[in-house]
Design a protein that fits this description.
7 strands, Pnp Oxidase, Chain A, 4 helices, alpha+beta, single chain, seven-stranded antiparallel beta sheet, 139 residues
Length: 139
């Protein structure tokens, strides 16, 4: 895919598969809702979750967004990089609101308050890419 196609694909994707490194060296793989903010992949997660514990110890990660049912439809983007974890409440709120709006619906005052409540226990995760690999079997 071109850089523009890759960016559009990541922005349109609903679920990202996030791989971090467990203490014993095995991959820890989880599905995450994500958004693209200022050109960067962003997620939020509970600060005490295993993925965040792993990223604090070792910020290396791999993210995968994929689509397609048949072989000739398979498309995907894999991003290898490092995590930047943000605990600033304003940043966490921004990411949480963006995820909610993208995946669940319009923001209301009630939703913003719920995001703020949930955000007290969460951090924002931004992906700083080092390598991006994409494929599109339809081409």
């Amino acid at each position: 895919m071109t850089e523009a196609e890759t960016s559009a694909f990541l922005a349109a994707g609903r679920t990202l598969h996030l791989a971090t490194i467990d203490p014993d060296g095995r991959p820890h793989l989880v599905p995450m809702w994500h958004v693209v903010i200022d050109g960067q992949l962003a997620m939020w997660a509970y600060a005490k979750s295993q993925k965040v514990v792993n990223l604090r110890r070792d910020p290396r990660l791999t993210c995968l967004v994929e689509a397609g049912e048949r072989y000739d439809e398979l498309r995907g983007v894999s991003v290898l990089g490092r995590a930047r974890i943000e605990s600033d409440p304003d940043v966490v709120q921004r990411v949480g609101e963006a995820i909610y709006e993208t995946h669940r619906g319009p923001l209301t005052d009630e939703v913003r308050a719920a995001v703020a409540h949930d955000g007290r226990k969460r951090v924002a995760i931004f992906v700083e890419p080092e390598r991006v690999v994409s494929w599109d079997h339809a081409k």
